[in-house]
Amino acid sequence: MEETSAPRAQWLRGVLDMCLLALMAEAPVYGYEMTVRLGEAGLDVADGSIYPALARLRKRQLVEVERRTGEGGPARTYYRPSEAGLQVLRSMSRDWSEFALGVSTVIAQTGRKGP
User: Fold this and answer.
1) How does pLDDT run across 64-111, given as a tens digit for each residue?
2) Whether 112 contacts 41, CB under 8 Å
3) What fold is seen in the domain 5-113?
4) How many CB atoms are closer than 10 A to CB 43?
5) What spatial distance separates the first Cα and last Cα of the chain, rounded to whole Å?
6) Whole-angstrom Cα distance, residue 74 to residue 43?
7) In angstroms, rounded to a whole number, what is the distance separating the alpha carbons of residues 115 and 106?
8) What is the pLDDT of residues 10-48, one digit of tens each?
């Protein structure tokens, strides 16, 4: 039996903070909306993973929060990256691009050599 979800879950844990900061950089966003948008991108993340990550980013002062009254519902907490968060996002994005290129290069070379 092939386990494809376990590696994907591990990879996502490694890049979740970067993904969350990237979503916030577009516009302030609340937690559940981040879960939905990640899912739409093919990254299935449980709410139980999002909120600890947001708390971690908040503790590191990489995000700013704003409570907004809901439209007929409860107030929501919106997140946006702080200036430090934007700097971390730029750095992580650069590192990710280099890392992903390296992995792709290794895989492409292995594919050419055959089994």
Assistant:
1) 999 998 777 888 999 999 999 999 999 999 999 999 999 999 999 886
2) no
3) Arc Repressor Mutant, subunit A (1.10.10)
4) 15
5) 20
6) 27
7) 14
8) 888 889 999 999 999 999 999 999 999 999 999 988 878
Residues 106, 109, 114: CA angle, nearest 5 degrees: 125
Angle at 39 between CA 97 and CA 29, to 5 degrees: 85
| DSSP H or E stretch at residue 76 | strand 76-81
Joined together, the tokens standing for residue 67 give: 């409570």
Residue 39: which H helix or E strand, with range?
Answer: helix 31-40
> Using CA atoms, how far apart are residues 81 and 93, in angstroms rounded to an integer?
14
Residue 73, CB-side half-sphere exposure with 13 Å CA sphere: 5
Global pTM value: 0.84
Q: Look at residues 21, 12, 14 and name the one whose alpha carbon lies nearest to residue 42.
A: 12
